[in-house]
Specification:
284 residues; mainly alpha
Length: 284
């Protein structure tokens, strides 16, 4: 009976919730969803979010149920190893069911990010590469006072991601936030490597990153600095005045996440550093 109960949770309950997840979260940028009425879109969003929350809650409850059975069995049959082993084997099915629910939850979180967050976040991040990073001191000063790109980055987080906090269990929201921030950092790194900089452009990049990390740190319950460590180090390389500063940095005790090849790649984005000089100073 216990085995059947655990199996039923996976086969019936989990699969039923997963079917809702597979139907997708409405993406207003998608043509297929644009054909639906506002009411249909709203209803599907609610079904998806409810199923996502239920996946998390059920996984938590199954884990508690398994723990309760284990404690009860140990108290009742602790002296009978044969019975205890048989019961433990039956109870293990609840562990398998918990894994099924957690895997389904991961799929739901990924689907939500790809449908609700990434389509609106990517265009804003992409604006980084559409503006010049060869700037003057006056431009640097103006952008330090008011930076449209940074303002849009903050806005997209506050308007797209933050509202999900009221609709999702805290653990799910934290996971969605972590997935989104990781995607943001990885996408920005790819874009940053397509640009050309002067020293002031590198300094601006560094200031932007530090401001963004400070903002994101204020809305998370975990450290995000590791997500941006590579970007911060790239900005440091791009903001040096002389190539000799790079060797001083890399030879210090500070841990550098960038390989020698990646450091060279960054420095060659500077319009005032000759590639031959970079190769000579950095070496292999």
């Amino acid at each position: 009976m216990i085995n059947n109960a655990a199996s039923s949770l996976s086969v019936e309950v989990c699969n039923e919730l997963l079917s809702t997840i597979k139907n997708g979260y409405p993406n207003v940028l998608s043509y297929s969803w644009q054909q639906g009425t506002d009411e249909q879109v709203h209803e599907q969003k609610e079904r998806f979010l409810t199923a996502t929350n239920n996946l998390h809650a059920t996984a938590e409850n199954i884990a508690k149920l398994k723990k309760g059975f284990q404690v009860k069995c140990e108290k009742s049959f602790g002296s009978d190893k044969a019975v205890l082993e048989k019961l433990s084997s039956c109870i293990s099915g609840f562990g398998d069911a918990t894994i099924d629910f957690k895997e389904a939850l991961k799929r739901a979180e990924s689907t939500l990010c790809k449908a609700a967050v990434f389509p609106k976040m990517h265009p804003v991040v992409a604006e980084f590469a559409s503006t010049s990073h060869i700037i003057t001191e006056d431009q640097l000063y103006m952008l330090e006072v008011e930076d449209p790109w940074l303002q849009e980055m903050v806005k997209v987080v506050e308007e797209v991601i933050t509202p999900l906090k009221l609709l999702l269990h805290q653990n799910i929201y934290d996971s969605v936030l972590k997935i989104s921030i990781t995607e943001m950092a990885e996408y920005l790194e790819k874009l940053a490597l397509t640009c050309t900089y002067n020293q002031l452009g590198g300094i601006l990049f560094d200031k932007r990153l530090r401001a963004l990390v400070t903002f994101l740190s204020g809305i998370t319950q975990w450290s995000i600095r590791d997500k941006f460590s590579r970007l911060v180090q790239m900005a440091l390389m791009l903001s040096v005045e002389r190539l000799s500063e790079v060797t001083e940095y890399t030879s210090s005790s500070t841990r550098c996440s960038l390989t020698t090849a990646e450091i060279k790649q960054c420095l060659k984005l500077r319009n005032d550093f000759k590639k031959d000089d970079v190769n000579k100073v950095i070496g292999d």
